[in-house]
Structure formats: structure tokens, C-alpha cells
Amino acid sequence: MTIELLQLLLLIIIANGAPILARMLLNNQWNAAVDFGAKMADGNPVLGASKTWRGILATLLVLPGVALIFGYTAEVGILIAIGTISGDLFSSFVKRRLGMVPSSKAPLLDQIPESLIPALMMMHIFDLSLSGILFLVFAFTVIDMIMTYFLYHWRVLRKSC
Fold it and tell me: Where are the transmembrane segments (predicted)?
């Protein structure tokens, strides 16, 4: 594992955790749903109440600073944040179409887009090969599943992150 791959993995993990930290610090403040409660023709929300503007802003504010600490530009941090957010919103959209409630678990669907999209976006900046991208997605998936298990067990995670 190269240092670049490890740094990108850490940035994606931090992007994934920023909304949780924001919820813990701000409770119910600024928790407007990204979809503003809109529903699709299937009667389900577009994304659901657990995808908030607070979470998006937390990721967009935290990641540029962490990227700078790792020696990258703030723009790289913003791009990783956008990629991670896009993957997370895509997963939520698909889960709602499948009739799954917000914050429900969908192994692989919860992790792959959230790690694959930023990895593909950053493959040239972080000098990633295809095998590096696959390893990053695998590593993120395993780490996220373990962290999610413990965060639910410790009641850090619950509905509406």
C-alpha cells in the first residue's frame, strides 16, 4: 500500500465520518434534509431524512483542511468530498427506490459508490492503478462495516445522521 493510497483512504473515511461528527456536535440544528422531504412517484423519499445539508456542509468544510494537512490542496479535499457525497447520495437514492428506510444497512451499496467515485476522480492525483483502486474500495468497505457495527453498538449511530 502506497502512502498516497493510504492518504486517500483516510480522506474518504474522514469524509464519511464528518456528517456523524456534525450531528453529534449540533444535535438537531441545521438538519434540513437534502431532498426537503420530496417524494418520488413510488411514494418513497428521493433520498430520505438522514441525508442532510448539515452533513454535506460538514464534509465540504472538514476535508479541505485535512487535505492541506496531508500536503494536498484544498481543492483536492473539496473534490474528494464531492465524490464521497455523490456516492453516498447515489446509494441513498437507490436504497429508497428499493423501499429501504433511511439509515438502513445495505452492505456493499453503502460502501462501494462512496469510495469508488472519489477513487476514480483522484486516481491521477494519487497515482492509483486499477489494483490500487480495487484495494482502496475493498479496504474502505471492510473498515466501514466494522466501524458501522461498533458505532451502532455504542449507539453513536442511529437514524438521521
Answer: 56-85, 132-152
pLDDT digits (tens, 9 = 90+) for 85-105: 999 999 999 999 999 988 888
Distance CA 89, CA 57 (A): 14
HEC profile of the chain: CCHHHHHHHHHHHHHHHHHHHHHHHHCCCCCCECCCCCECCCCCECCCCCCEHHHHHHHHHHHHHHHHHCCCCHHHHHHHHHHHHHHHHHHHHHHHHCCCCCCCCCCCCCCHHHHHHHHHHHCCCCCCCHHHHHHHHHHHHHHHHHHHHHHHHCCCCCCCC
> What pTM, to 2 d.p., does this model score?
0.93
Backbone angles phi, psi at 39, to 5 degrees: -120, 150
Three cell numbers written together for 142: 471492510
CA dihedral 56, 113, 125, 8 (to 10 degrees): 70
- pLDDT tens-digit series, residues 111-145: 999 999 999 999 999 999 999 999 999 999 999 99
